[in-house]
């Protein structure tokens, strides 16, 4: 059997991709080396958001009793500001408020990994093949095959990496391993790169850019949208990439990629991207072998992850 899409990783973008691909009637497999849910597991409510705003009420009904079981101290979900903002949009069915309307500070989920896994299976089980606890070992893009740690070989038409923080990090010490696995990859989708926090402080300002991945020997078209929502001033309508941020980003890229070509493509306001869903054009041709997403855990990052997934699937499978 040949899968239309194989997705490595089941976190935020991986879940969004699997859900959209399923909607398009594609044959999908998800390979997850740990537990299904990935970084959705950090914040239980993120699982609901991945499936799109229109389905939140349905998820609310399905999981209402389940959420109550985990209403005890455990893994923190989001900060107060983010919870209030996203709960107003009904993204987080478990956000609780006291009688005065203040957020209950004991908003915790005891076992978010179980919660994320339960929601994921509830939404897509029977429609995709899930390889949980199994690692992707090597991709042969010429033969369109993926070797798993069990020795199983899967065939595919398109393959995505949705492996999250650090898996393809520029600062990672595992370059040899990533080079073996990803050297023949055609498309990459990740939730974040393992960049220094200081670097990310200005990277969130850049809308998209085009650069060269040295250990992949491929070009990449990137959309960093980390933490946009937490860095916006009150009057965000006119908030654009500032000169200082552009200079810092250029300086860092020149140091990191002094031997390789790169170019910052452009920047738009977060307000425009978020409210009007004006996504950058994605050209899935030979010039851009690799597409990388920088998605944070904010509600905005998750919604855009869903939007980008839909756009990519639509372009790859017209």
From TrEMBL:
Residues 3-166 form the FAD/NAD(P)-binding domain. GO terms for molecular function: oxidoreductase activity. Gene3D superfamilies: FAD/NAD(P)-binding domain (3.50.50.60). Pfam families: Pyr_redox_2. This is FAD-binding protein. It comes from Salmonella enterica.
């Amino acid at each position: 059997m040949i899968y239309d899409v194989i997705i490595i990783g089941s976190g935020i973008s991986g879940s969004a991709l699997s859900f959209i691909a399923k909607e398009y009637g594609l044959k999908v497999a998800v390979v997850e080396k740990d537990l299904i849910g990935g970084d959705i597991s950090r914040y239980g409510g993120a699982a609901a958001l991945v499936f799109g705003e229109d389905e939140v009420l349905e998820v609310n009904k399905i999981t209402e009793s389940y959420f109550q079981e985990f209403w005890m101290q455990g893994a923190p979900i989001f900060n107060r500001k983010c919870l209030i903002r996203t709960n107003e949009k009904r993204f987080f069915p478990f956000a609780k408020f006291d009688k005065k309307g203040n957020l209950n500070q004991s908003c915790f989920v005891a076992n978010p990994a179980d919660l994320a896994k339960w929601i994921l299976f509830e939404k897509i089980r029977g429609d995709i093949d899930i390889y949980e606890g199994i690692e992707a070992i090597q991709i042969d893009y010429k033969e369109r095959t993926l070797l798993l740690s069990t020795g199983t070989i899967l065939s595919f038409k398109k393959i995505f990496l949705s492996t999250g923080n650090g898996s393809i990090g520029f600062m990672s010490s595992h370059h040899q391993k990533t080079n073996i696995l990803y050297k023949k990859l055609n498309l990459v989708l990740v939730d974040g790169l393992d960049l220094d926090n200081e670097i990310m402080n200005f990277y969130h300002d850049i809308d998209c850019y085009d650069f060269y991945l040295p250990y992949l020997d491929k070009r990449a078209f990137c959309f960093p949208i980390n933490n946009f929502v937490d860095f916006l001033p009150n009057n965000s309508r006119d908030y654009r990439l500032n000169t200082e941020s552009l200079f810092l980003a250029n300086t860092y890229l020149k140091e990191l990629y002094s031997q390789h070509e790169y170019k910052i493509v452009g920047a738009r306001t977060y307000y425009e991207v978020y409210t009007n869903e004006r996504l950058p054009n994605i050209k899935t041709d030979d010039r851009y072998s690799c597409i990388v997403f920088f998605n944070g855990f904010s509600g905005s990052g998750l919604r855009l992850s869903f939007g980008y997934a839909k756009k990519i699937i639509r372009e790859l499978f017209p």
